[in-house]
Specification:
The complex is a heterodimer. By secondary structure, chain A is α/β, with parallel strands linked by helices. Chain A is 25% helix and 25% strand. Chain A contains 7 helices and 11 strands. In chain A, β3, α2 and β4 form a beta-alpha-beta unit. Chain A is globular and about 40 Å long. Chain A starts with a strand and ends in a 7-residue tail after the last helix. Chain B is α+β, with helices and mostly antiparallel strands. Chain B has a domain of 239 residues: Phosphoribosyl-aminoimidazole Synthetase, Chain A, domain 2 (Alpha-Beta Complex). The chains are: A alpha/beta, B alpha+beta. The interface between A and B is medium-sized, with 33 and 36 residues.
C-alpha cells in the first residue's frame, strides 16, 4: 500500500478515508491497526476521524501512546506526508506533531454541517491557485475549537501555517482556524472531512482537490485515474 | 429429562434464601395466576433467582403477553414472490428481520423503544436505546449503515420538556456519533399528551450478504458458550419489568433500572463481532444481552436451538464485587453479547477479542435436553425449562371499550370553526411553521453525524433520508422514513394507523424509493385499561390491513405499553418505519426546489378536510374532528405516478402534503439553498368551499411536484391518463415572495425569508429560554 490509514480502537472514518484514496483518487491504500507496524512501502499516512479510545481523558490523549505512534513520528521526521482529519488532527496535536490543542466547541454541542472555509496561501500545495478561494467541506465534531498560546498562534500566522479558516466560525476556534500544517510542511491537520466530499452523491466535490494536494507527491510519481 | 420437583439447594448468598410471598410475587409484576402457572411448570416453588428470571422473561417487554395475538395480524412476508424485498428472516424469528435487496445482499433493520428509561434519565436512556438497537442489527451479521429516531415530547414551553428534549437528543448524538453510524434524522413531534412520558424509538439498519445471516440459536451439544464485552454490574437491574409498568411520581427512584451506556465499548464490540463472524464456520449462534441481559440471551438461544444450556456465573466477568446470582442474571449492563462457537475453535474467537481488548469468557456449554441451568459458587441456583420462559408466557386478550372521545370526534362539524379571511392567511401560516412539530429540526439534526461512512445522499429534513450503500460496494441507495401523526390515531385509531403507513410510504415515493418492508413501534397506554386496549387493537388492525393491501410486510418491531403519566395514556402512537430502495443515483429526489422557473403541480386533488389538522391546533387549540379519508386506491395511484415519473427523469423535486397542509408544503419546498420564491394560483376553493380547508387541510394521498417547464404538459397528460387529479399551481421564481391566489383573489403575499426565519428559529428560540 502507498497510503496507510491508521485504525485505532474507536476510529470510525477509517473506511471512508481508505475509500476516498483507493476507490476515488486511485492510489493503493489500506488500513493499519494501531498495534501493528507501519509497512515499509507506505508513502503517505492518514490519521482518520472518529473517537479513538472513546475520547476518554481528552480527544487523542490516549491514542498518542499507541504502538504505531512511534512509527508515525519517525515517518514524519523523515519527511513523510501525514494528514490528520478531525480526531486525527486532535491526535497529531496531542502527540506534538502539530502545535496547539482542540477543545470543546464553544456552543457545547456536536456540530455536523457543510462548512464554508476560506483557503489560505500556505505553501506551494495548499493555496488559492490549487484549491480556489474557498471550499465547502463537511464538519462533524464536538471538540474542534482550536487553541494555542499567543506565541504559537503568532508563529503559525507568521509562517503561513494556517491552511483553512472557518467562515463563519462554528466552534470558537482562535483565528477561525480549521486546519494547519507543521513548519516543515509535511504534517497536516484539519477538522473538516475532505473524504466526505469526493463523490457525486456527496454535498460537493471540494474534498478532491484538497486530498489531491496532500497526495500530490505520490500522484506526481504515479498519476492516478479519477474514478468519479 | 424430568423437572426436578424437589427444591434446589440454598443459594450461596443467604439474602436470596427467602420465602416467596404474595407480596414478593406482586413486586415482581407477576399476577397470582401467572405464579400458579410457574408452580405448575416447575412442580415446585421457584427460588428468588428463578422468580426474577420468570418476572423479566414474562414481562410485556420480553413476552408481548398483551400483544402477541394482535401481532399475528401483521403480514410477515410478501405475497408477490417476484418482487424485490423478499423476507429472508421474518419478524420474531431472530433479533431483527432481514429482507433481500438484490445481488445477494440483504438489509437487517428494526426499531425499538427506550421510553421509560428516557423519561427518568433522558441522556442515558436515549443513548442506550441506540446501543440496544445497534446490537440487534450486528448480531444478525450486518454492518450497520444508518440510524433514525422517532421522538415524541410534551409542549416545548415546559422547562421539564426542554430538559428531556435536550437530554434525549444529546444522548442519541453522543452514542451514535461515537459509533460512526450515520443518523439520518427521523421525526420529532410535540404534543401535550407526551408530557412526562416522552417516546424515544430508535431504528438501525444494516447490510449483509445472504450467506452471512447469523442465528441466535444454541445448537450442537458440547459447543462452548462465550460471554463477550465489558463486565457485568448492577446497572439496569430489572429494566425489562420497569418498562412494563406505568411511570409514576416515584419512578425516579427506579433510576438504577436505567442502564449506562459506553459507545466506545459498543464500537469495539461491533468491530470484534463482525470480524469474528467473518471467520467461516466459527460462530454457531449469537445474541445480544439487551433487555433481561444474561437471562434472556441464554434461555432464548437454548429455546431457538431446541437445546439445553448450562452456565457458571463464577466465570462471568464482573465489574462490581459481591454480586449474587439474582443480580448477575437480571443485570442489563450494556455492550455485552452471548456467543456460541464450534467446539475446538475457541482460540479463534479469543484471538479476535484479544485484538480488540475485550473480555471473552467461556461461561458454559450447550447441553442435551431443554433446561437452562445456572450455577454460582458450585451450587445450582436456577434450573428451568428454557422454553417455559420464552414460549409459555401467558397470552392475554384484554377487554376493550371504545373511549368516549371517539364518538365525539365523529360528531364534530367543521361549521363550528369560523371561516378564514384572506388577510389572516399569513398569520395562520406563520403559526403553523412555528409549531415545533412542523418547524425545522435543524437544531436536532446538526447534533447528529449523518455524513460518516460516506453514504449520506439526502440529509435529514427531506421526506426520506437516503444513504448510498457504498460500504457494500453496491451502487444502490437505501431510503428510510418514519411516520406517525398521533392526532389522527387519537381521533380514529384504525384510520390513524393507516395514515401513518400511507404517509410513510408516500415519503419514500417522493424520494424516488420503492417501499420494501416495515418495522413498527407500537407505543400505547396501559393494556389493562379497556379504552387503551381498544386503541391498541384498532391501530394494529388498521396498520395490518394497510400492510396487506400494499404488500409491504412487517419484519419486526417493538411494543411499548404502560406509557402513562399523570393525566392518563399518551395518544396511540404506532410509529411506522419503512425502508425503500432506489436503484439509480438519478432517481434520488429531494423535497426542496433548487431552480427558478420550474413548474409546481399539486397531485391528488384539492385538500378539503380540516379534521385533526394542525391548523385546528395552532388556531383553536383543538384536537377534534374526523380523520381525513384514507383511500388506498388513490394512494397507490399517486405513488405509482411519483415513482414512474421520477424514474422517467421528469420530477425535479417532490414533497408530500402532511402536517400543515398545502401552504406549509409549498413553503417548505422553497426553504432549500436555492433562495427561491413562487407564484401560485388555484381556480376555486375545491370541495369544501373553505379557504382554511384548502390551504391547511391535511387530506391524504397528495403531493406537490416540481417539473421542468418543457416536461409540464407531458406530466399533466400522464396524470390525466392514469386518472390522477393534477392541478397546475404555478412557477418558482428568483424572488423572495410566496404569492398565492385562489379564485382570482390574493390570499398570500409573504416574504419567503420571513417564513423561513420563523420556521428555522422556532425551536432554537424555545431552547434558548430556560
Amino acid at each position: 500500500m502507498k497510503v496507510a490509514v491508521i485504525q485505532f480502537p474507536g476510529s470510525n472514518c477509517d473506511w471512508d478515508a481508505e475509500h476516498s484514496v483507493q476507490d476515488v483518487i486511485g492510489l493503493p491504500a489500506g488500513r493499519v491497526w494501531h498495534k501493528n507496524q507501519l509497512p515499509n512501502d507506505v508513502e503517505a499516512i492518514i490519521v482518520p476521524g472518529g473517537f479513538s479510545f472513546g475520547d476518554y481523558l481528552r480527544c487523542g490523549a490516549i491514542a498518542r501512546f499507541s504502538p504505531i505512534m512511534s512509527d508515525i513520528k519517525r515517518f514524519a521526521e523523515n519527511g513523510g506526508q501525514v494528514l490528520g482529519i478531525c480526531n486525527g488532527f486532535q491526535i497529531l496535536c496531542e502527540s506534538g506533531l502539530l502545535p496547539g490543542a482542540l477543545v470543546r466547541n464553544d456552543c457545547m454541542e456536536f456540530r455536523c454541517l457543510n462548512q464554508s472555509l476560506k483557503v489560505e496561501d500556505s505553501n506551494n500545495r495548499f493555496n488559492r491557485n490549487a484549491l480556489g478561494d474557498s471550499l465547502n467541506l463537511p464538519i462533524a465534531h464536538g471538540e474542534g475549537n482550536y487553541r494555542a498560546d499567543d506565541d504559537v498562534l503568532a508563529d503559525l500566522e507568521a509562517n503561513q501555517q494556517v491552511l483553512l479558516r472557518y467562515q463563519p466560525n462554528p466552534n470558537g476556534s482562535l483565528n477561525d482556524i480549521a486546519g494547519i500544517r507543521n513548519l516543515v510542511g509535511n504534517v497536516y491537520g484539519m477538522m473538516p472531512h475532505p473524504e466526505r466530499a469526493v463523490e457525486n452523491h456527496h454535498p460537493c466535490l471540494d474534498g478532491l482537490p484538497l486530498l489531491r494536494a496532500f497526495l500530490q507527491p505520490l500522484l506526481v510519481s504515479s498519476p492516478a485515474e479519477l474514478s468519479t | 429429562m424430568e423437572t426436578p420437583t424437589v427444591p434446589l439447594p440454598p443459594n450461596p448468598d443467604a439474602r436470596l434464601n427467602v420465602e416467596i410471598t404474595p407480596e414478593l410475587i406482586a413486586q415482581h409484576g407477576l399476577l397470582p395466576e401467572e405464579y400458579d402457572q410457574i408452580l405448575k411448570i416447575l412442580g415446585r416453588t421457584p427460588n428468588l433467582t428463578e422468580l426474577g428470571i420468570f418476572s423479566v422473561m414474562w414481562s410485556e417487554h420480553c413476552a408481548y403477553k398483551n400483544t402477541r395475538k394482535l401481532l399475528k395480524l401483521f403480514p410477515t412476508e410478501k405475497k408477490d414472490k417476484n418482487a424485490i424485498g423478499q423476507v429472508l428472516v421474518k419478524a420474531g424469528e431472530e433479533n431483527a428481520g432481514v429482507i433481500d435487496v438484490g445481488e445477494g445482499w440483504g438489509v437487517a433493520f428494526k426499531i425499538e423503544s427506550h421510553n421509560h428509561p428516557s423519561a427518568i434519565e433522558p441522556f442515558e436512556g436515549a443513548a442506550t436505546g441506540v446501543g440496544g438497537i445497534v446490537r440487534d442489527i450486528f448480531t444478525m451479521g450486518a454492518r450497520p449503515v444508518l440510524l433514525t429516531n422517532s421522538l415524541r415530547f410534551g409542549s416545548l414551553e415546559s422547562r421539564q420538556v426542554k430538559r428531556l428534549f435536550r437530554g434525549v437528543v444529546s444522548g442519541i448524538s453522543h452514542y451514535g456519533n461515537c459509533l460512526g453510524i450515520p443518523n439520518m434524522g427521523g421525526d420529532v413531534y410535540f404534543d401535550d399528551c407526551y408530557e412526562g412520558n416522552p417516546l424515544v424509538n430508535a431504528l438501525c439498519a444494516g447490510i449483509l450478504r445472504h450467506e452471512e445471516i447469523q442465528k441466535g440459536a444454541a445448537t450442537g451439544v458440547g459447543n462452548p458458550v462465550y460471554y463477550v464485552g465489558p463486565g457485568t454490574g448492577r446497572d439496569g437491574l430489572g429494566g425489562a419489568s420497569f418498562a412494563s409498568r406505568e411511570l409514576t411520581e416515584e419512578s425516579a427512584e427506579d433510576r438504577p433500572a436505567v442502564q449506562k451506556g459506553d459507545p466506545f465499548m459498543e464500537k469495539l464490540l461491533l468491530e470484534a463481532c463482525l470480524e469474528m463472524m467473518s471467520i467461516p464456520g466459527l460462530v454457531v449462534g449469537i445474541q445480544d444481552m439487551g433487555a433481561a441481559g444474561l437471562t434472556c440471551s441464554t434461555c432464548e438461544t437454548a429455546s431457538r436451538g431446541n437445546a439445553g444450556i448450562e452456565i457458571d456465573l463464577d466465570l462471568v466477568p464482573q465489574r462490581e464485587s459481591g454480586m449474587n446470582s439474582y443480580e448477575i442474571m437480571l443485570s442489563e449492563s450494556q455492550e455485552r453479547m452471548l456467543v456460541i462457537v464450534t467446539k475446538g475453535r475457541e482460540r479463534e474467537l479469543e484471538q479476535v477479542f484479544e485484538k480488540w481488548d475485550l473480555h471473552a469468557a467461556h461461561i458454559g456449554e450447550v447441553k442435551q435436553g431443554d433446561r437452562m441451568v445456572v450455577r454460582h459458587k458450585g451450587v445450582v441456583v436456577a434450573d428451568l425449562p428454557a422454553k417455559s420462559l420464552t414460549d409459555e408466557a401467558p397470552v392475554y386478550d384484554q377487554p376493550t371499550s371504545e373511549p368516549a372521545h371517539l364518538a365525539q370526534a365523529r360528531e364534530w362539524k367543521v361549521d363550528t370553526i369560523p371561516e378564514l379571511a384572506a388577510d389572516k392567511v399569513e398569520t395562520a401560516l406563520l403559526g403553523l411553521l412555528q409549531h415545533p412539530t412542523i418547524a425545522s429540526k435543524q437544531w436536532v439534526w446538526k447534533q447528529y453525524d449523518h455524513m460518516v461512512m460516506s453514504g449520506c445522499t439526502v440529509e435529514p429534513g427531506s421526506d426520506a433520508g437516503v444513504v448510498k450503500l457504498s460500504i457494500a460496494g453496491i451502487n444502490k441507495f437505501l431510503a428510510i422514513a418514519n411516520d406517525c401523526n398521533n392526532r389522527f390515531c387519537y381521533l380514529d385509531p384504525y384510520a390513524g394507523a393507516q395514515i401513518a403507513f400511507a404517509e410513510c410510504m408516500r415519503n419514500l415515493a417522493c424520494s424516488g424509493a420503492r417501499a420494501l418492508a416495515v418495522t413498527d413501534n407500537l407505543n400505547f397506554g396501559n393494556p389493562n385499561k379497556p379504552e387503551a386496549y381498544h386503541m391498541l387493537k384498532e391501530c394494529v388492525k388498521g396498520l395490518a390491513d394497510a400492510c396487506s393491501h400494499f404488500d409491504v410486510p412487517v419484519v419486526g418491531g417493538n411494543v411499548s405499553l404502560y406509557n402513562e403519566h399523570g393525566e392518563g395514556a399518551i395518544d396511540p402512537t404506532p410509529v411506522v418505519s419503512m425502508v425503500g430502495l432506489i436503484d439509480h443515483a438519478d432517481w434520488v429526489t429531494r423535497s426542496c426546489v433548487r431552480e427558478s422557473g420550474v413548474e409546481l403541480i399539486l397531485l391528488g386533488g384539492l385538500p378539503h378536510e380540516l379534521g385533526g389538522s394542525y391548523y385546528l391546533q395552532t388556531e383553536f387549540g383543538q384536537k377534534e374532528g374526523t380523520c381525513p379519508i384514507v383511500d388506498f386506491g388513490a394512494e397507490k395511484n399517486l405513488q405509482h405516478f411519483l415513482i414512474s415519473q421520477i424514474e422517467d427523469g421528469k420530477i425535479h423535486a417532490a414533497h408530500d402534503l402532511s402536517e400543515g397542509g398545502l401552504l406549509v408544503c409549498l413553503a417548505e419546498m422553497l426553504f432549500g439553498e436555492g433562495k427561491l420564491g413562487a407564484s401560485v394560483a388555484l381556480p376555486d376553493l375545491g370541495l369544501s368551499g373553505r379557504l382554511d380547508a384548502l390551504l391547511f387541510g391535511e387530506s391524504q394521498a397528495r403531493a406537490v411536484i416540481a417539473v421542468k417547464s418543457p416536461d409540464k404538459e407531458a406530466v399533466l397528460q400522464v396524470a390525466q391518463s392514469t386518472g390522477l387529479s393534477a392541478h397546475y399551481l404555478g412557477q418558482t421564481k428568483e424572488s423572495d415572495e410566496l404569492r398565492m391566489e385562489v379564485a382570482n383573489l390574493s390570499v398570500l403575499n409573504a416574504k419567503v425569508s420571513d417564513l423561513k426565519n420563523a420556521w428555522e428559529s422556532a425551536i432554537p428560540l424555545q431552547m434558548q429560554t430556560a
